[in-house]
Please model this.
Amino acid sequence: MKMVFRWFGEGNDTVSLDQIRQIPGVEGIVWSLHDVPAGEEWPMDKIMAVKEQADRAGLHLKVVESVNIHEDIKLGLPSRDLYIDNYKKTIAKLAQVGVKVICYNFMPVFDWLRTDLHKELEDGSTALFYEKSKIADIDPFDLVKEINKNSKLTMPGWEPERLAHLTKLFEAYKGVSQEDLWANCKYFLDEIIPVAAQHDIKMAIHPDDPPWPIFGLPRIITGQDNIRRFLSLHDSPYNGITLCSGSMGANPENDIVSMVHEFIDRIPFTHIRNVRVYENGDFIETSHRTQDGTVDIAGIVQAYAEEGFEGFARPDHGRHIWDEQCRPGYGLYDRALGIMYLWGVWDSHRRTVEAAKGSVK
Ligand SMILES: [Mn+2]
Model:
């Protein structure tokens, strides 16, 4: 397991590269060009600027999250070929600076959804929260109208300036079924994976978050059966997944330990974090410790240790603790604590695995 840490870039993150390099075992950053719109080719000078910053800090930049997919690709519009072409050019450029994994997702409109970014936990810390009843059965057009009427009513990603754009997107997806989305995903993979293979970059799709359809929009990367189907769409070691225990764990029916064992050869990158799921389907992000949530983090890390996982891992989100002012979910403190928990579980199980090997000899 190779530990990495998400960094949003110079001037765009409260956490510095110098802080990141002091977290035990962290060797690289997970990065992106957040100011380049989805669908555009990434400029080489901007890629080089991040490379120089990472080099200076002694961190590698082998994992990119994300190169976002333009909505026209997900919608299957004729204009997708132009955006796919740009994506291929970006892959070739990223290979030049040593990138090995590209994380992306195939979620229509929203790449994640929460209803509250600072919900208070019992200990006074705050964390990202999802209130199911706020989303379930709501017509998105009604929600847009409501938010327009009442400026206090808002949700992350639903800022007034995005509302007009959102309405247009919801219209565009009206005729797109789950099967259409599968077909559009396959079209993308058949174009992209051979190029990724040629450049020795593994593509790693992130599961849908939360892992169920919202607002009538189709979602396909939601559970073990669907991941199996996804991997068979284009059977190549370069077509993999970013197994995210937090996204998958929002549905308690998902058995993530089983997914680790089944898909291990197709997991170049993993996000490990816990969530606590309530009886009514609401969920909140908690500390990484197994007992604090409903996801068996210790069991998941044990599974990776048993499999001798050689891919990249990051702690994903954390709570906001010790009065840290930071991007929601992306503070230094709780993610660093999370990493130490992951290492603790990992090291103890690796010791057992190594000892067992020794006794065979
Ligand atoms: Mn994730």
User: Anything to note?
Assistant: The mean pLDDT is 92. Residues 333-360 form the longest helix (28 residues). The domain at 2-108+177-273+297-360 is CATH 3.20.20.150 (TIM Barrel).
